[in-house]
Design brief:
The complex is a heterodimer of chains A (239) and B (293).
Chain A lengths: L1 H12 L8 E6 L2 E2 L3 E3 L5 E2 L1 H12 L3 E6 L5 H6 L5 E2 L7 H4 L3 E7 L3 E6 L9 E5 L3 H8 L3 E5 L2 H9 L5 E5 H9 L6 E8 L4 E5 L4 H16 L2 H10 L7
Parallel strand pairs in A: 1-5, 1-6, 9-10, 9-11
Antiparallel strand pairs in A: 2-3, 3-4, 6-13, 7-13, 8-11, 8-12
Chain B lengths: L12 H9 L2 H35 L4 H16 L2 H24 L8 E2 L2 E2 L14 H34 L2 H9 L4 H31 L11 H9 L14 H31 L5 H10 L1
Antiparallel strand pairs in B: 1-2
The chains are: A alpha/beta (239), B mainly alpha (293).
């Protein structure tokens, strides 16, 4: 405790003398394989590896923080961190509030998972709150139930509260594969969103340009595709 | 933590559980119990201090102080707790940054509010983004602590005000008859006697405070509820320790923890009440006197 107080005092004293710029990357930490907290309490996953590589290429010193998905955009605009990498799809609505780099994952299919393949997809569908999937279901004739975390959407289907869960197929695939037949894909895949990209404050044009250039370079030399295949399997959509 | 944990996939069950329960995330879960206890240990005296100041202000003979005290009590008590918990930390944080911004960056001409963005100059960020993580955590924790103290202070103020008014008038009159000043009467007669009237209300408030600590989770602090949900969720084989949905066990552990804390404090308050009732002109004080005689 005492050490904390001293550290806090030092930090306050250092106000004004700005050290090397640290870029703070925010993620949800609950959306494997995009991002998750591993058993060593570190942020891990596709976006961790990609984000670290982008920062290396842009010569930035980056650190990761996790935050609730639901408040991830307000906390960005409030300046609590500088960029979002959290499996966030580019949408028109989000682009009004924040700005996006070019996509680092191409538009990927969303899919339904249910306890049986003939589940009623016009019944009750579980999604995570504030996602493109939630918006899609809300506009359809199905009944939408929203959950704060992706894990809760799966739990809702397992206990029969929802007929199916609708989410990124990349997120559902390992869960369906390891459910031992308890969960299966149902219905057709749906193509949603304009790809997954990094979100920044609209006023941070300089930082966005740096990350944009780094993503462009990784697309050009093929390292981004290699990384996508590593984390999402050989059938993943690549650039 | 243990050497044999290097490859959890091949372990016998008891070792697997030993490794699982000592993983980095589980250690953080255990530490978060400390966070909750620390919050309680700091929030209770802070709320009591706020409450005492509020009660004194509300009973003051000086009109502006009385108005301020009444306003504080009425406003905080009249707004849902959750709104205050969400509002206070953001308001303090942005207010602090606004003040530091004006003090350190007078040459900054761009507006702070740009559309949805709240942007101060880099030097005015509180805490500095470069500050180590423990400092960031301590800052977030302090903001939460202030929110708790403010909200529970208002309730405590009302309880203490009521307790001050419950001390029998005859007791104070005796002090006046002895020629004591108002301050002396307050310190020597009212203050020692008021606690016995305040305690039932304060113990209620303490139990509510204990049960309100999961609100930390709302403020983005990784408390026991956060870790219970995080650790209990289904884990696929991307994690070192895959398991199905175990949230019910984690929440059960949290439930037992809260029950233990409230049960223990129930006992402590009963003892404190006995202690405070000694020699008091109340029914409980009378019962103690009879038992001793």
């Amino acid at each position: 405790m005492q050490k904390w107080i001293i550290a806090a005092a030092l930090a306050l004293a250092a106000t004004g003398a700005s050290a090397q710029q640290v870029v703070r990357l925010a993620t949800e930490g609950a959306y494997p394989p995009f991002n998750f907290i591993n058993d060593q309490k570190q942020v891990d996953g596709f976006e961790r590896e990609l984000g670290d590589e982008l920062c290396r290429r842009a010569a930035l010193s980056c650190e990761w923080i996790t935050t609730e998905w639901d408040s991830i955009i307000p906390n960005l605009t409030a300046g609590n961190y500088d960029a979002i990498m959290a499996g966030m799809s580019v949408t028109e609505e989000r682009s009004k509030v924040i700005s996006f780099t070019q996509a680092y994952v191409p538009p990927t299919p969303s899919a339904y998972a249910a306890t049986s393949a003939d589940a009623n997809l016009k019944g009750v569908i579980a999604t995570q709150v504030n996602t493109i999937q939630a918006a899609y279901i809300a506009a359809s004739e199905a009944t939408l139930v929203e959950f704060v975390t992706p894990d809760e959407t799966i739990a809702a289907v397992r206990r029969g509260e929802a007929d199916a869960v609708f989410a990124d197929k990349d997120y559902l695939a390992p869960i369906v594969a390891e459910s031992g037949g308890a969960l299966v894909f149902a219905g057709e895949d749906v193509q949603l969103g304009e790809g997954i990209a990094m979100g920044l404050r609209q006023s941070d044009t300089e930082l966005r340009a740096k990350f944009d250039a780094a993503i462009g370079a990784m697309k050009a030399d093929g390292t981004l595709n290699t990384m996508i295949l590593k984390w999402f399997g050989p059938e993943a959509t690549i650039f | 933590m243990f050497a044999f944990c290097a490859d959890p996939g091949l372990l016998p069950e008891w070792q697997w559980f030993l490794c699982y329960l000592s993983s980095g995330t589980h250690l953080a879960f255990y530490a978060s119990f400390g966070t909750v206890v620390l919050l309680l240990a700091l929030a209770a005296p802070a709320a009591l201090a706020f409450g005492f100041a509020g009660a004194l202000a509300a009973r003051s003979h000086f009109l502006p102080a009385r108005t301020l005290g009444a306003l504080y009590i009425a406003m905080v008590r009249g707004v849902p707790d959750v709104i205050f918990f969400l509002f206070v930390p953001v308001a303090i944080d942005q207010g602090l940054e606004y003040l530091v911004h004006h003090a350190t960056c007078p040459e900054w001409t761009e507006p702070i509010r740009r559309g949805p963005d709240f942007i101060v100059c880099p030097a005015a960020k509180v805490p500095q983004p470069t500050a180590p993580v423990p400092v960031q955590d301590a800052y977030a924790f302090t903001l939460a602590l202030v929110a708790f103290a403010l909200v529970f202070g208002a309730f405590a103020a009302n309880t203490l005000k009521g307790a001050m008014e419950a001390v029998p008038r005859a007791q104070l009159e005796t002090g006046e008859a002895f020629g004591m000043t108002r301050g002396q009467i307050f310190r020597r007669i009212l203050l020692p006697q008021m606690w016995v009237y305040a305690l039932p209300g304060l113990s209620n408030l303490w139990q509510i405070l204990v049960k309100a600590t999961p609100l930390l989770f709302l403020l983005g602090i990784q408390d026991i509820v956060y870790w219970a949900r995080e650790l209990g969720g289904t884990k696929t084989s991307i994690y070192s320790y895959p398991h199905p949905d175990w949230r019910v066990w984690y929440f059960l552990a949290v439930l037992v923890f809260y029950l233990a804390v409230t049960w223990a404090s129930e006992g402590l308050f009963a003892r404190l009440m006995r202690h405070l009732s000694r020699g008091q002109a109340t029914a409980a004080g009378e019962a103690l006197r009879r038992a001793a005689a």
